[in-house]
Amino acid sequence: MQLPDDNSRDNSSDNEYELNVKMEAGMRTPYGLEIIESCMGCKASREGFFCRFSPAVLRPVDAASHHTIMPAGAVLFVEGQKPRGVFVLCSGKVKLSTTSKEGKVLILKQAEAGEVLGLSAAISGTSYEMTAESATPCQLNFIGRQDLMALLESESEVGVHAAQWLSREFQGAYRDIHDLVLARSSSGKLARLLLSCAPRGLEESDELYLHSAMTHEEMAQRIGSSRETVTRLLSHLKKKRLIRLDGATLVIRDRTGLEALAV
Q1: What fold is seen in the domain 186-262?
Q2: What's the predicted TM-score (pTM) here?
């Protein structure tokens, strides 16, 4: 019997090592997300993110942070719950909603990476105003309320960022109320919603692809209507050649026409 030579054993060891590295990397990246274990040197953070602090302030923020990954459908906090702290969304999307006494759900917005969730409740000490549920797998940083209040007292930069985000939330809520209440019709509200989900920076003549299109039920919850009404309105928009469907992707064919409907 011929024994393997040293080179064969070395190649076998190298291949086994590479396989182990790949397996470990796969284990460290559930849901296809790149795990962020520390805020220091984080590649996900960019201009406009709540966590865009100077290095000196980022250190105590990182020390107070608890990094975690959540699957889609995970509830971060519930409307009426006593605030435990805030969630900084590193990647993914989170659905924010409220529910009436009759059980009707209204989706208030979909939070994107870089936003902070539950800030106003955590600072005021009052109950969360809405329910937060992950719409996709998410990378999150949780900062407990006690640690957050200590950071606000000791780090003026954290206080400035918090004030800026609370102002943005107020302005966003005002715009949403304006659109929801003052839009002339359900078709106008739906047109506004579709346009708000469209990618930015394209030419006026370009078609807009909404790859992460919501279900009819989710659209209804966003505009305060019923699923049946949304289905009927989408069919009407298709007949008017304002939109079309490419499989699961909704395409805005005539942005100008949809904007006219949204006025």
Answers
A1: Arc Repressor Mutant, subunit A (1.10.10)
A2: 0.66
